[in-house]
Structures are given as structure tokens and as C-alpha cells.
Amino acid sequence: MQADLTPDFPNEAEAPVHLKKRKALKIAYNAASILGLLLAVAVCIYFYRMGIFTKPDAMQQYMAKQGAWAPLVFILIQIIQVVIPIIPGGVSLAAGVVIFGPWFGFAYNYIGICIGSIFNFLLSRHFGRPFVEAVISERLFKKYIGWLDKGKRFDTLFAWAIFLPVAPDDFLCMLAGISNMSFKKYVLIILLCKPLSILLYSIGLTTLLQYIAKMLGG
Question: What sections of the protein cross the membrane (predicted)?
Fold first, then answer.
């Protein structure tokens, strides 16, 4: 018994104290995670009821009223739409460019999406596969779950999927959370590979929206 306790506890008397501390920290962490998720849902419902997620004009008007806080509010909206995908991410990407211009719009999109992607990874890593299966459609889950059987190749496939806008990024971020990929490597892939897909979505959709507006106006 003493040998088992030696790595963590100087003596057996201290074992119960350390175990209680660990248990308390784990409970606090779980409570904070649940509280954060509930807060995100509440904010999401608030924005949805205001029409921000469904009407581009409503989002633009809302941002205009925020003044200097507009960038932070928009980044928060982007984080929420990544974690709780109510609207297609491409719509909010285009809105960022329209509202803030190409450079600042790209920067705010990048910041919000990267933070949201990291949250997705942490949520799935903490709550595990049952969480991923609960929030993702069965069809999508079955389509990509086989990637986990590819071992180290999963990391490469994931990096390419994030680099090129051809796969469901938000789900793959959750899938990475239940893989063997390290958090450090995941963050590095997100930070380095996200810019191209964000740029393509932002500029491509913005150009399309401007073309449609021109056609309707003409």
C-alpha cells in the first residue's frame, strides 16, 4: 500500500486530503464547464430572438449600435456559431467582411472561429464520444468516425480538411477531441490552417452577395 502512495503522497495520512482536493477541483471544473455551456446557449437564444442569426441586415444594424464594442460582440457571435451551429458559418464570415471591411473582417472572423474551434475540441475531449454523438447527426458521425482508425494519418487528414474548405470543420474539431491528437498540435493546426479557408469563404461569399445585390439592383 505504501509503495502505491509514494509517487503522490508522502504518507498515507495525506492521501485522503489530496483525494478530496482533486475531487473538489474536478467538481468545480465540471460545474464551470456546464455553466459556460448554459451561458453560451442563453446568449445564443438572445441573439437568435433578435434576428441576428437569421437576418444579415439585423446583424449589421446591431453591430452599428455597439460602437467600439462591435468587434468583440462580433467575435462572440462567431464563437457561438462555431460551438452551436445555428446558421451556416459562411454567412457570418461574409457578414464580417461586409460590416468591418476585408482586413478587419478577416481578422475578427479568424479570431472568433479559432477560439470557437478550440472550445469544440475541449468540449469533446472533456465529455467524450457520447457528447459528440449527441450533438452531431448520425449520418455525419458515421461518415467520418472511420478517420479515427487511421492512427497518425488522422492528424494529416484533419490538417488538410481544416486547410481546405471541403469538410465539416466544426464536427472534425470535435472528432479531434476524441482522437489521440495532443491539444498543442491541434491548436497549431487550427492557427496555421484556418486562414485559407476563412479567406476563401469570406471573399467568395462577399463577392457572390455583391453580385446578387448588383443584379437585383440593376
Answer: 27-48, 69-100, 106-123, 157-180, 186-213
